[in-house]
Amino acid sequence: MLGVIGGLLIISGCTLYGVSYSTRLKRRIDILKNFINIFERMTGFIEYSILDMQAIFTKLSRYEYSPEVENFIKITLYELNKSDMDTFGVIWSNTIEQSFSGILKDDEIMILNDVGKLSDYYDKENQINIIMSVKEECKGALEILKDGARNKMKAYIAAGISAGLILVITLI
């Protein structure tokens, strides 16, 4: 009886491990989609009104995003409000690293870090060009990520179940 319970626990644990990999892939897709929406909104805020980054992030915080992105916006807004010395670029890159280092891959983080260059340009056309460029790079990364994502997610779960079965069979 204990052997059966132990076997079920092993299979369940391995299956959950596969599900966690599948969920991580889904979270990465959601985060990139959220950032594409953020970049579209930022472009509108910069193009049609004269707002500083504190006002832009205050407006962005009113929208609904995934929990990780909402946390990122809250931290960025907090840092923008409290900091007198740090530039937007420093705050942006630090918050990106802090919020997404375990979730997104390094190349995706590098794409997002390019938005930190906004503080180097004071005219709105260059700022909009940077945001649009990063948005297009995010769209490209999202397409690569989505390509076969459903099959990868199924494969992660199947691999977890298979690993659990192999462990149970080996231990019997």
Write up this protein.
The chain is mostly helical. α1 runs antiparallel to α6 and α2 packs antiparallel against α3. It is elongated, with a radius of gyration of 21 Å. The protein is built from seven helices and no strands. 80% of the residues lie in helices and 0% in strands. It has one domain.
Characteristics:
0% strand, 172 residues, single chain
Evaluate the radius of gyration: 21 Å
Q: Let me know the number of strands.
A: 0
Secondary-structure element series: HHHHHHH
Strand content: under 5%
Which ranges are low-confidence, i.e. pLDDT below 50, for 5 or more consecutive residues?
none
Cα distance, first to last residue?
A: 13 Å
> Helix proportion of residues, in percent?
over 70%
Number of domains: 1
**Largest sheet report:** none
